[in-house]
Amino acid sequence: MNDVFEGPGARCHETRFRVxxxxxxxxxxxxxxxxxxMPGTEAVxxxxxxxxxxxxxxxxxxxxxxxxxxxxxxxxxxxxxxNAGTLSESCPSGDEQIGQGDPTQDDGRxxxxxxxxAAMSSPPAEAAEGRWWRSRAGATMLLTGVAxxxxxxIGLLVPPLERFAFVAAVAVGLVPVGRRALVNxxxxxxxxxxxxxxxxxxxxxxxxxEAEAAVVLLLFLLGELLERVAANRARTGIRALTAxxxxxxxxxxRDGRLxxxxxxxxxxxxxxxVRPGDRIAADGTVLAGQGGVDESPxxxxxxxxxxxxxxxxxAGTINGESLLRVRVNANARDNTIARIVRMVEExxxxxxxxxxxxxxxxxxxxxxxxxxxxxxxxxxxxxxxAAWADWIYRGATLLLIGCPCALVISTPAAIASGxxxxxxxxxxMKGGAVLEQLGQITLVAFDKTGTLTLGQxxxxxxxAFGAADRTAVLAxxxxxxxxxxxxxxxxxxxxxxxxxxxxxxxxxxxxxxxxGVAAKRxxxxxxLGSVSAATERVVAPDSLSAATALVEEGKTVSVxxxxxxxxxxxxxxxxxxxDARDGIxxxxxxxxxxxxxxxxxxxxxEQVAERVGIPAHAELLPQDKLRLVKDYQARGARVAKxxxxxxxAPALAAADVxxxxxxxxxxxxxxxxAASLHGRVTDIAAxxxxxxxxxxxxxxxxxxALGLKLxxxxxxxxGTTGLWxxxxxxxxxxxxxxxxxxRLLRRR
Length: 748
Fold this sequence. Notes:
This protein is of the alpha+beta class. Helices cover 47% and strands 19% of the residues.
């Protein structure tokens, strides 16, 4: 079933499915080339990292025909679970990238919320790691190996039949390879590694090197198998995230019973029980129970976090020592792990600039090497009368050097590993381009509230005036704050709870907009509000000088007034994140400057900026933040903007890289290029470090793949190396650059 998007002047369809068996960049290129040739196709995106294929078309090519072509190429197409039972989705509008469907859409069925984590469910058994011997490639390699061993045995026992035995061994390995070469050529990829291998093997047999041709075919098939194992290993990072999700949950029924159901069937509002030692099945809020929750699967932090009533818990984390009752806040499609998987998959489907450059280079590299191989094979014999067999052999060897597999995979393998490593630690980056740009950042512009600070004020000073009692001041303030969700009210109530002070009930509680709250008790009027509002109500405003001094220190002050007499005040301040200074210091060690852009008052901003050690721009509107970001860029800075609020969205979009903090608004998360899921200031430096390590691995991979090809190019023309070395240069190099990329997955 195809949904239709009415684009400007065209009807657009989008079809998405997954493919197993893609083991290198050349595999992805074959699929992309074949599908682009279908009538009505507008664009094709093939993600080697996630195995996703997304085709944008005018509705003429059917999804089944696309899959049939992919199957003919030797791969296994299968349904993408993200499509919830279909192979097609409507195209994105505007400038959205292919493959970026709306992850928040639901089809309305409670049970169809099959998590996006399921989208990374294992492909068909043929491609599963550890079952290579059951795959077609594994069977072909084993059969060819047996044929080669048998040919050697025939050569020892019946020497006259040795050549025929090796020709038969070549045929065993070459028939499936040659068939794939013809199919690839039919669908647009003429210079595939299978075609180059077929021509080289036939040429070797023609000049009497059938034994070497058989061994080279065996090495080629073995190398393909190793590529498959390496590719599967590279994809296990995301699969490991999906494995964090428990399969079942214990849900409370309306009659108080407990039923065990599949975790993906949980709906918002359900109440589940999580036993000690169990993984939490959904994002939610604790209703009852208290104890430590191990969040290391998501954060990497070794110490459990204390959780109690009203605290948030995340899917995939592990309950500690007590039973927890949790109200589900998000369905399976939208829990923490599903969001991570979705963002990383979408990121892996967006190619980095370096990857796109390498792909363009590879399109010219292979034909050039093929032309060179033809010149080497026929030039010296025709011009200088050299031996045909010798130069045909060298030309055949050059054909195998022409395959760009290792070169093409060098960048996406590293980028995919970097993105996965970041996601595992709560560092989400929306694409390889973002990962590359982070390493080039020279300045980070931080928001204040909720970014450098926790966004949760805490009481710092509590003063009683005259004969008033400190405890009574807190009790009255808590009574006036009861039932309010305002941050100041929550801070006062938290302080009262900490000190064991019970609020004294009041009557006629009413909010005074922009000023505070008022009530009555036994005929006495109580008011709790700002210093300016209290000044208007008290008989002697000079008595509030202590409050004015606290305001100048950057604190928020609430004054308690009883019948026009100030009886006390409560000062509070937003707490700086514990890792803020460390995060700024780590950025400086990386050669990156930091600055604060905030809409808060100058006094508060300067107080926070002084404590973390950075300059501050205060009292800014959203357009002011945008202007400052552009000013820094105009001076040559590469700017990362970090924020969590709606007013940060314009600056986040304008910056070279926008980073949203984990507790931020949906607008910030959608606008940003990257996100710190756990809201740590140190995560910004961690992103930059990860980017630089990833780019370092990319450079190593490209240098190794290209350097090895060039080296063998000269040694082959010289006659030092032969067919076997060329095969190792291709498949061996592919395995090595993939293994080098996997180093990024190691925890540091």
